[in-house]
Input
Amino acid sequence: MYMLLRLGVSRLAARRFSTGAATTTAHVPKVCIVGSGPAGFYAAQQIIKSHETAEVDIYEKLPVPFGLVRYGVAPDHPEVKNCINTFTQTASKNRVTFLGNVDIGSDVTFSQLRQAYHAVILAYGNAKDRTLNIPGEELSGVLSARQFVGWYNGLPEDADLKVNLDVESVAVVGQGNVALDVARILLTPMDMLRKTDIPENVLACLDKSQVKYVTLIGRRGSQNVAFTIKELREMVNLPGCRPNLITGDYQHLKDLIPSLPRPRKRLLELLAKTALDAPAPALASAWASAQKEWRLRFLLSPVEVLAEADGQTVSGLKLAHNRLEGDGENQRAVQTEETETLECGLVLRSIGYKGIPIDSSLPFDHRTGTIANDNGRVKGQNGVYVSGWIGTGPVGVILSTMTSGFTSGKMLVADINSGQVDVSSAKGGKEEVLDILSEKGKKPVNFSDWNRLDKFETEVGAKLGKPREKVTNVQKMLNISHD
Ligand code: FAD
Output
């Protein structure tokens, strides 16, 4: 049986299996990681570095690795994806095995993993998003930014999303970096987008887009925007596009700015300058001839998505005016009776990603969408850890996720060394899991398989003058990977 399975796993893994099963590896710590985004890969890197013999298996539900680096980070930010080089190095270590196309919680249960490994790190990110819970949210012209991002990044589950861009005005609810990403993709000239890895079907749709105005809506004031300076600067300088900002929303920033910490200060300085100062001549002339606009609106909460007479098509977003109560950390936006309507044909909800539970035995906080943990150790579960967004919620960039991954990896190794994680008994590791998968007729994708798909995508992309053309259908991915 093992012989057969060996053929289905990576060449690296096969080499290791051939050294003999349980007897020679009984005391080698067998660790598995659920999820192959930054949180999973950085944790694996740390474990391999800090422990001389530990073996790490990374399970991934998709046939491809890298999580949101492949499917979240904007296609026009390829430099952000350079961390993939480090992940690839980690995957090539002979104590690390990547097993894609394995959905933990469905193909293999968490308790089966617990049985097969000495320790488990949960690094499976946030697969859902928060909802507004307002009337009209179910209309087809209301999408989550998560789906929209998945669509333009070629995520299989969103690859065939119906996105109606035959509209002039789009409302984006939220003012974080994801909101700015989707606004930028909607407003960027096609000649720039064609150089990215946005799938061809999505480029065709964007090419026909009628979108001229994108309005980003925030609950609180301009001082509370959640995006960062790099993303704002890109919007300010976006070719063919100008900001349309209401000066009264920014006057108070001038008094506030001097007392702020540096990154926030620089961000709000740029925001205030953009809104209040005359642009340099070159920018002024670019803005004057621009055909498209981005707008920021503040102190507004969506209360209803309005439909045309057909009851199907979005015609606008009803917004309640908010007032701010309290100070500092305790400041809250409180809705008033006053409302206004923003005319738009598409609403994108960008109010945060959200984790989901994969097993009822795990302590899950449904309010925050996270697994309850003490700095990475899952509460009440010895030998189980979290890393990245499933432990922290959807906050932080790849750098902070790296810190989270390193922390969890170090903690796990410390617990092995202190005896808190018991490695005295032999564990079946991936061989045990592969038996379970084999019985279900499920064949994992190993890292060599992924390399094959990667090569295919980059070759097809090169012919189209882009970095890659992603395969967006899971079966097709498997066919190419397993070829
Ligand atoms: P993820 O990256 O989501 O990885 C989780 C992995 O787990 C996924 O591959 C998923 O398929 C897998 N998985 C899920 N469920 C299961 C299961 N049941 N079994 C097996 N596997 C499973 N950061 C930056 O630094 N720069 C940027 O420009 C940037 N842009 C971003 C744009 C968007 C739209 C988003 C949403 C985030 C962006 N980030 C950016 C943040 C960055 O992507 C995150 O910090 C990071 O990806 C979080 O890593 P993670 O490993 O926790 O989650």
